[in-house]
Specification:
The protein is built from 10 helices and 7 strands. With 227 residues, it is an alpha/beta fold. The chain has one domain: Rossmann fold (3-Layer(aba) Sandwich), CATH 3.40.50.300. The strands form 2 sheets. The chain has a 5-stranded parallel sheet with strand order 2-5-1-6-7. A two-stranded antiparallel ribbon has the order 3-4. The protein binds cytidine-5'-diphosphate.
């Protein structure tokens, strides 16, 4: 169990930018009937607020002050979490070039992480979930046995992002995410690593399902049904 106090379990999917973790998490959520949580959207939403308020994303003190005042909430609807900024869906603004360039600096601010980790843990009250990000298996749900780390070579990831039509220096973001002091991108203790460089998405999903089976996800389901 992810936590002795909660009925529900979390599958943690971590990895660098454009490794395919969002797609894998979405497909796992569909097939296993889980709530899908993209934690990166939360960091992107805070970054958008930082930019809307004209705050320098590289000024951690002012970012930390701002984060105390922003109106951010997370709801669960249609099988997934949705982030609301000032009561509205931020939509495609979350993936603008400006947000891509600033998000790693904002995500390195401890006060930002503190706020968002609390929001992320709170989502477990809604049901079993799959959450993808950078620190899900290491910090958000360190006790879950269901941890997967998806990686791929930097060149392949850069090509994948370019094929989505985005200017996003994934290598630079990874370096910042791995070097930060608070909750850096790491392979979490006990995570199964899947290198997706030479795999199609179906193969990655199949491998992930195999990991979950080995770790008892499906036994857990049948035990629960017997209660
Ligand atoms: O989809 P992609 O892999 O490009 O990135 P994302 O998941 O949307 O995350 C955007 C940024 O948010 C990352 O580069 C990290 O700086 C930050 N992030 C984080 O620090 N911790 C998480 N759990 C998720 C994202």
């Amino acid at each position: 169990m992810s936590s002795p106090n909660l009925l529900y379990d979390a599958i943690a999917i971590d990895g660098p930018a454009a490794s395919g973790k969002s797609t894998v998490a979405r497909l796992l959520a569909e097939r296993l009937n889980l709530i899908m949580v993209n934690s990166g959207e939360m960091y992107r939403a805070v970054t958008l607020a930082v930019m809307q308020h004209g705050v320098n994303p590289c000024d951690p003190i002012t970012v930390a002050d701002l984060v105390k005042t922003i109106n951010l909430c997370c709801i669960v609807e249609n099988g997934g979490s949705q982030i609301l900024l000032d009561g509205e869906y931020p939509g495609s603004a979350l993936r603008s070039d400006n947000v891509n360039a600033a998000v790693s600096a904002v995500a390195a601010v401890p006060e930002v992480r503190h706020l968002l980790v609390a929001l992320q843990r709170g989502l477990l009250q809604h049901g079993d979930l799959v959450m993808e990000g950078r620190d899900i298996g290491s910090i958000v749900f360190p006790n879950t046995p269901y941890k997967i780390y998806i990686e791929a070579s930097e060149e392949i990831r850069r090509q994948r992002r370019a094929a989505e039509g985005q200017t996003d220096s994934v290598g630079e973001r990874d370096r910042q995410d791995s070097a930060r002091k608070t909750s850096p991108l790491v392979v979490p203790d006990g995570a199964e690593v899947i290198d997706s460089s030479q795999m199609g998405i179906e193969e990655v999903v199949k491998t992930a399902l195999g990991v979950l089976e080995t770790r008892g996800w499906f036994d857990r389901e049948s035990e629960r049904n017997l209660v």
